[in-house]
Amino acid sequence: MTYNFQSIALMTASVLTATLLTACSSLEERQIASGSFDYVKEQPGQKINIPDDVDSPHFNDAYKLPELGENAPKNAMGKDLSVLSPSLVLAVVSGSHIEEGSKNAIVWFDQVDDTLPLDTAVWNSLIRFLETEGIGVEMFDKDNQRLITDWMVMDESKDNKWYSWSKSERTVGQRFEFTLDKKPHGRTASLSVELVDYREKLDAQSTEITKAKDKRRNEVDVLNRVVKNYEFEAKVANVKRFRQIREGLQMDLGFDSDGEPAFVVDADYEITWPRLLLVLRKLGFDVKDYDKSNGLLFVKYNGAEEGWWSNIWSSDKNEMKLDTEEYRIKVVSVGKKTSITLLDDESNPFPVNKLTDLYPTFSKTMSADDLDI
Prior knowledge:
This protein is of the alpha+beta class. Helices cover 28% and strands 23% of the residues. It folds into 2 domains: 158 residues, Alpha-D-Glucose-1,6-Bisphosphate, Chain A, domain 4; 119 residues, TATA-Binding Protein (2-Layer Sandwich), CATH 3.30.310.170. It contains 7 helices and 13 strands. Strands 1, 2, 3, 4, 5, 6 and 7 form a 7-stranded antiparallel beta sheet that branches. The longest helix has 32 residues. The two termini are 63 Å apart.
């Protein structure tokens, strides 16, 4: 197929025209339907008057419009009717969800990390988000779980690119109120947001608009930004936590809070607990059951399991002087450190000399980087 210069020029002009028309559409124009709005001037039709001596025709109600509800925006017609799709709350954080059918800007969180109380974790993330965006806090009442932001100002004129054919001088300012509602058990909470103040100017000379055209959309948009930031922080924290677990942890001989001989790990409880599970498996322990909330592990020692390759090239064994039987392990947070107390099957602590004999093997495995299981 061949093209002459004239046909190429016509196609190029058509593409440029379409691009110009698309680029020149403003934000307001993208929110309304295209075409004529003459239909808003039409009056409802009258029913056909059927004479008494004539049979009434059969009417089909297949295309009959439903009656408007009491709370329907009856003036939302023509250019006042937004054709944008409804905004959806995005529950992207692990353990988060939304209520089916809810029309409010609200998201529910379940506690999945016991490092901080759930409400503290949510408020900390929200405040960090506001600080990052340069948004002030007008009021924060932690006791009543309420926060009101300062003005969030969006100036579209600053976002205009040199290659954009459309220019906008629209500025929007908004203030929001965030409310946290905890369940009595404290492990589930909802975060909701409400638009409390709104200011909009289409240009410097226009009259200020003080009522948002779509209040819920504005509320959902800011809530989704907050939730997205929460998700990002959670991912960063998990990566950091996994890296700490994989890295070696220093361990010393010491005593637990009851004065019993124990291993003391230089890491907090949330890091030590998963690291200990890796160490136990490496040393030949089978974890039969555990209760993390109470810091208890029920294990059975099966003896060190070394691969045939390591048996050939290394004489370093993880074998310990332990009988092949069941034991218990108590893990307790001690400030920024964690104590590990070894117990027999009747919960009697290991004596000092026995714990001292096991220490070199435990310490070496606990401090090994990139522990391979």
